[in-house]
Design brief:
Blueprint: E1 4-5, H1 6-9, H2 13-21, E2 27-31, E3 34-38
Parallel strand pairs: 1-2
Antiparallel strand pairs: 2-3
Length: 80
């Protein structure tokens, strides 16, 4: 498609956008030496909402706890 100018696009912007959304090719608009392209955007999937408390840490699920090490004691790297 030949790039359109702003003057060409202004009166029919709504119909051009509808044409792009319905699967038409992107519209290229020229303004001086710069170009802008109107393309259909794809929205990402919504981030799932987890129930309250589903991401809470339960120390009983893990065998290691800070209580098994006394202060000042050197801890072997395999226990971390």
């Amino acid at each position: 498609m030949i790039p359109l100018t702003i003057s060409d696009v202004k009166p029919r912007l709504g119909s051009l956008v509808d044409r792009v959304i319905s699967g038409g090719e992107p519209i290229t608009i020229r303004r001086g030496k710069s170009y802008v392209q109107i393309v259909q955007a794809v929205m990402p999937e919504a981030i799932p909402v987890y129930p309250v408390g589903s991401l809470v840490f339960d120390p009983n699920e893990f065998p290691f706890s800070d209580e098994s090490i006394s202060e000042g004691e050197d801890v072997p790297l395999d226990r971390l």
